[in-house]
Design brief:
Rossmann fold, Ubiquitin-like (UB roll), four-stranded mixed sheet, 758 residues, 10% strand, Glutaredoxin, 51% helix
């Protein structure tokens, strides 16, 4: 029987997986079963659809859209692989999974996380049966000790030691806690496990609870993971109904209940005592240690805390033996480790490898190298508490000791890859900004020290760095490391220290040369225009086209005011406005705008900056920049329309004056001269207005230089304004002139009657 599986982890759903599934539900799948799975880890290829046929190799379809549902349905009915051939994963992308060794992620993307039957069929809950029927708590701890499993939350503390300490602590009431408060930027390992294989977490926690003697288990998960919480809640309900949770599990004397606590997502709650404080309903702030949680933890009872990945390994170790797990990895770091590979790498996603692989193996062999084939620059390991490892250390072995020697840490498994276009000072600022905001504020070293460091880094990236700033940063770093209360505060300076250690030249360039070598710091970027590359156009044809179009728009009674909704529909490459940048009339027309409008128009049109870049440069919201820009375009178009009407009025006036005697024979000479003088005055006023506009210049220092460089190169059309206008008038203007001359003549006749009466 054919089974069609849609990958619906958070990344898959965000990419459109649910839309694909809904589209497939509307198709005739020829009896094929349609189901879901979690995240397989190939995030860069989402949405992913796997097709299973009678136990044969899976056909993996990648980057599937809802429009591809018909192709999948056709394959389900005909078996013709040509229908889905364009969607099949490439051999190159297959290497992303083939080169991994999966233990914690072994069922992720394979089973339906909402169905306990799928988990049981995939060898689920066999480990807890073995533990309850064949092993004592001491036996379990010994197997974990043999495996060499260390905490995967970052510290790398031996799991067996923590379990043993909690077991030997006095007290009948004990707690087992899972830390699923994954707060590192760019990390999503725990989320993927819970969303894709929640029963593996439950089984691992049951074994841990049995080992330490706990009857209550709590999963502390961040509230920002709604899908993970939903699937874990369903898994707990199913496990309870099936007898794997609750009283007398599987008919034994062991009982354990499991609950979920949705945390507020504070980074500091990754520290185990701060997490316990939050669980108790208090503000998440670290406690002084000792006592350690194993002696006095949740509600001052003996407690043990491990993270999701740690528990996800436990059932595999029980079923396969501690020796099998220990055979992988290095002497000091056993087993496998899951990494969330993100950043400037081609293949981003979840990677599980044995300890002992190198950074090169992950980034280039599995990850496929750098996007755009740019040069690899550094990788941030361990999140905000970790450090940057430079390109020259890319062959560093991935284990706790080797990574620590570089100044970085293993951490929970975040791996942010950076290329040659990344500013390392800016990267340090990014992570420090995060830790400064996430500081609980309990100790002054972390609360104040990180803020002072952030101020210095901000000053440096703004081009205001001073001599001695680097040394001051180093002094603050070591002071915070020595004085901070908890591990998070003690490791907060790591991104700064490692970037100073390996990229000190970039700090010096920012301070001494006021330049950003990577070109990322907007305050240190200078904009210029290559005048030789500016396009040239025929002025007469330009004026003719604009005048004609705007006159027709006016006579067709189109709106002179464009509503905001209409403004946003204007394309950035507005032909009429782009024409202006090569004309002397640009300077005249732009004189009607205010200083903000002048600056934004200049940066957008002359410098060809994006709205985002302009917003960053001027320190204003992007939406505000867009509104001002398009409002300015509307103003310029209205000015162009008025210009067109002036041309027509002048021609019609000339025509009326020429025929004036025929239409009004009794008009005396003085009146005629008066009329001519009035017409002449009107024309003179308009010419003066244009001359005044020419005097208007953009005073903003950032944009005046760019505008002047352009204006100097374009011809002056003011002296030839009347001649160009008359020459450029086409047949359509002749017809329009007749109409306006008649209107003008009627006006003159009415005026004559009034003068005659006087």
């Amino acid at each position: 029987m054919m089974k069609i599986v849609v990958g619906e982890g958070s990344c898959g759903i965000a990419a459109g997986a649910e839309k694909v599934r809904q589209a497939l539900l509307k198709e005739d799948l020829n009896g094929a079963m349609l189901t879901i799975a979690g995240c397989i880890g190939m995030c860069y290829l989402e949405p992913i659809v796997d097709i299973y046929e009678d136990g044969k190799d899976v056909k993996r379809l990648v980057r599937v859209t809802e429009n591809d549902a018909k192709k999948i349905a056709e394959y389900a009915k005909t078996g013709d692989e040509n229908a889905i051939a364009p969607l099949l994963v490439s051999d190159e992308d297959k290497e992303f999974l083939n080169k991994q060794t999966r233990i914690a992620l072994r069922r992720c993307g394979i089973i339906n996380p909402d169905e306990i039957e799928d988990f049981i069929q995939a060898d689920g809950y066999t480990a807890i049966k073995k533990v309850l029927n064949e092993m004592t708590p001491e036996d379990v701890i010994e197997v974990i000790k043999t495996s060499g499993l260390a905490g995967r939350g970052g510290a790398g503390f031996p799991t067996w030691f923590k379990w043993n300490a909690a077991r030997q602590s006095d007290g009948e009431e004990k707690y087992l806690i899972c830390n699923a408060d994954e707060g590192d930027p760019g990390a999503f390992m725990d989320r993927a496990v819970i969303e894709s294989d929640p029963h593996t977490l439950i089984e691992g926690m049951l074994i841990g609870a049995y080992a330490i003697g706990a009857k209550n288990a709590v999963v502390y998960v961040r509230a920002e993971y709604p899908l993970a919480i939903k699937r874990l809640e369903r898994a707990i309900e199913q496990a309870t109904e099936a007898g794997y949770l609750g009283d007398n599990i599987l008919g034994t004397d062991f009982s354990c209940k499991m609950t979920i606590k949705a945390g507020a997502g504070a980074f500091v709650c990754g520290e185990e005592t701060a997490l316990i404080e939050s669980l108790e309903g208090h503000r998440g702030m670290p406690r002084l240690k000792p006592p350690f949680p194993a002696q006095s933890g949740y509600w001052r009872k003996p407690s043990n805390i491990n993270n999701v990945e740690t528990f996800a390994n436990v059932s595999w170790i029980i079923n396969n033996g501690g020796e099998a797990f220990a055979s992988m990895g290095t002497e000091g770091s056993k087993g496998t480790k899951v990494f969330a590979v993100t950043g400037k790498v081609k293949r981003s996603g979840l990677v599980e490898i044995p300890m002992g692989k190198t950074l090169r193996d992950v980034i280039f062999d599995i990850g496929g190298g750098m996007k755009g084939d740019k040069a690899f620059k550094a990788v941030q390991m361990g999140g905000p508490s970790g450090g940057c490892i430079p390109a020259e250390l890319i062959d560093t072995v991935i284990d706790y000791k080797a990574l620590g020697a570089t100044g970085a840490i293993m951490g929970s498994g975040g791996m942010v890859v950076m290329d040659e276009g990344t500013c390392m000072v800016g990267m340090a600022k990014f992570f420090l900004d995060f830790t400064a905001k996430e500081s609980c504020g309990k100790c002054i070293h972390c609360r104040i020290g990180t803020k002072r460091m952030l101020e210095i880094l901000t000053r440096i990236t703004n081009g205001e760095g001073q001599d001695g700033d680097v040394e001051l940063l180093e002094e603050l770093c070591y002071g915070i490391k020595d004085g901070a209360l908890c591990g998070l505060g003690q490791t907060a300076p790591n991104p700064v220290l490692t970037t100073i250690k390996y990229f000190r030249n970039e700090y010096e360039a920012h301070i001494n040369e006021k330049k950003c070598p990577a070109g990322e710091c907007s305050s240190l970027i200078e904009y210029s225009i290559d005048k030789d590359k500016l396009p040239t156009r025929n002025e007469s044809s330009w004026l003719y086209s604009v005048t004609k179009n705007e006159t027709i728009n006016y006579l067709n009674k189109k709106k002179n005011h464009i509503e905001l909704e209409e403004i946003y529909e204007i394309e950035d490459n507005n032909n009429e406005i782009n024409e202006l940048i090569n004309k002397d009339s640009y300077n005249r027309l732009i004189g009607k705008l205010n200083e903000n409008e002048k600056e934004i128009i200049s940066l957008k049109i002359l410098s060809n900056l994006s709205f985002k870049e302009i917003a960053k440069l001027l320190n204003k919201p992007t939406g505000t920049i867009k509104w001002i820009y398009y409002k300015s375009i509307n103003t310029l178009k209205l000015l162009l329309s008025n210009l067109a009407m002036f041309i027509i009025s002048f021609i019609s006036s000339c025509f009326a004056m020429k025929n004036r005697k025929k239409l009004s024979p009794k008009l005396n000479v003085d009146e005629s001269n008066q009329t001519k003088e009035e017409i002449k005055d009107e024309i003179t006023e308009d010419k003066e207005l244009l001359q005044d506009n020419k005097k208007s210049t953009i005073t903003n220092d950032k944009s005046s230089q760019m505008q002047e460089s352009v204006i100097e190169e374009v011809p002056n059309i003011s002296n030839n304004y009347l001649s160009i206008s008359l020459i450029g008038v086409s047949t359509i203007f002749f017809i329009l002139t007749i109409i306006f001359s008649i209107i003008f003549t009627k006006h003159q006749l009415k005026r004559r009657k009034k003068l005659s009466k006087k």
